[in-house]
Write a structure and sequence with these properties.
- The complex is a heterodimer of chains A (218) and B (97).
- Chain A has 218 residues and is mainly α.
- Chain A has six helices and no strands.
- In chain A, helix 3 runs antiparallel to helix 6.
- Chain B is 70% helix and 0% strand.
- Chain B has 97 residues and is mainly α.
- In chain B, helix 1 packs antiparallel against helix 2.
- Classes of the chains: A mainly alpha (218), B mainly alpha (97).
Amino acid sequence: MSDGAPHPALAHQFDSLGQQTEAATLGMWVFLVTEVLFFGGLFATYAVYRAWYPSGFAAASHELDITLGGINTAVLITSSLTMALAVHAAQTEQRGRLLTCLALTMVLGAIFLGIKGVEYMHKFAEHHVPGPGFHFEPAEQARHAQIFFSLYFIMTGLHALHMVIGIGIMIVMLVWSWRGRITTEYASPIEISGLYWHFVDIVWIFLFPLLYLIGRHA
Amino acid sequence: MSAHVVPVRIYFAIFGILMACTLATVVIAFVDLGPMNIVAALAIASFKATLVVLFFMHVKYSTRLTWAVVVGSVFWLAILLALTFGDYLTRPWRTYG
C-alpha cells in the first residue's frame, strides 16, 4: 500500500501479509494432518473388523441405501466445486459471486446433513442402532453386523459433526465477505476455510465406498 | 505474495472427473472382481482424493513445505495402518512351545 499503513488484517508478529498468509495456510494444513490421523484411527479399526468378519460386514452394508449415499457423495463433491469457486471469487474480489458461492456451499452441506438425518431415521426404525434395541436378520450375523453399525454411526457421526463445524465456519466467512473484509490481498480466510471443507469432502470420498459398497456384486 | 488464481474451467473439469469416478465406483461395486473389488474401490477413492488435494486445495500450486506436510500425513497414516495390521492380521500365526 502506497501510504505505508499496514493492512488492517496484518498481525504485529508478521513482517508482511504474504508471510501471514503462508503461516496461516501451513497452520491449517498441520491441523488437517492431525485430522487425517484422527479419522485414520477409525478407518484402521474398520479395516481390522472387516478383515475378520467379511460376511457380517457385507450383510450389514447391504442395509444401507446406496441411492441416498450416492446422492450425498454428489452433493459433497458439488459443494467442493462451489467452495473452490468461492475462493476464486475471493481472489478476484468479486463480492457478489463470493457470497453466492459461499451460500451454495452451505446449502449443499445442509442438504447432505438432511439426507444423513433421513438415513439415521431409517436405521432407528429398522432397529439397526447398536444397543439393547438392536435387531438384525439373519441372527447369526447379528453380532458382527452390530460392530459394523457401531463403526457406521461413529464414523459418519464424527464426519457429520465436522460438516456442522464447517457450516459454522462458512457462516463467519459469509459475514466477513458481506462486510467487505475479503479482498484480493486478504483472500486467505476463504482459502483456509476451503481447505477444511475439502478435507471433510475427502473423508466422505473414502467413507462412501467402504461403508455402502461392500460385497454388492450378486 | 503470489496467490495463484486457478482458472474456473479447471475447477469444472476436476468436478466432472470426480463425478465420473463416483459413478465408476458404484458401477464397479456391482461387478464381481473378487479381492480386486476393494482394491478398485480404494484406488478410485485415492485418485479422487488426490485430485481434490492437488487442485481444489491448491497443493499443486503451493510451496514445497505444504507439499511435504501433506505427504507427511499420508506417510504417518501408512505407519498407523502398517503397524496395526501387522499386529492384528498376524495374530493367528501364534504357536505355543
